[in-house]
Design a protein that fits this description.
With about 100 residues, the protein is mainly β. It has one domain. About 10% of the residues lie in helices and about 50% in strands.
Length: about 100
């Protein structure tokens, strides 16, 4: 199954990073300030392949899936880490990035 992870970053050193399984609210403005400089958030969509039985729980912002050890609930960060590591059933989809918000 292919899902979308929503990534929010800022073009500044040591800025926070946010990952979500549900889209960020388009009407909200997100900024990060360093000294007198204010950085606007940059949003990107990442396509991730997950196990076939995986389901996004949009209310709790979790991915529910079944591993060989039983049911699992994973955060967007955990899903990203699993895909980056190539864990069983997880991988980054090819061409999985596009700008959005």
């Amino acid at each position: 199954m292919q899902i979308t992870l929503y990534l929010r970053t800022y073009p500044a050193k040591d800025a926070p990073v946010a990952l979500s399984l549900v889209p960020f609210a388009g009407h909200q403005r997100h900024t990060f300030t360093v000294g007198d400089k204010v950085y606007e958030a940059e949003c990107k969509e990442l396509q991730v392949i997950t196990p076939g039985d995986a389901k996004v729980d949009a209310l709790k912002n979790l991915l529910n899936w079944v591993s060989d050890k039983g049911p699992v609930k994973s955060t967007a960060k955990e899903v990203f880490d699993l895909a980056q590591a190539g864990a069983s059933g997880f991988r980054m989809a090819k061409g999985g990035g596009s700008s959005s918000e």
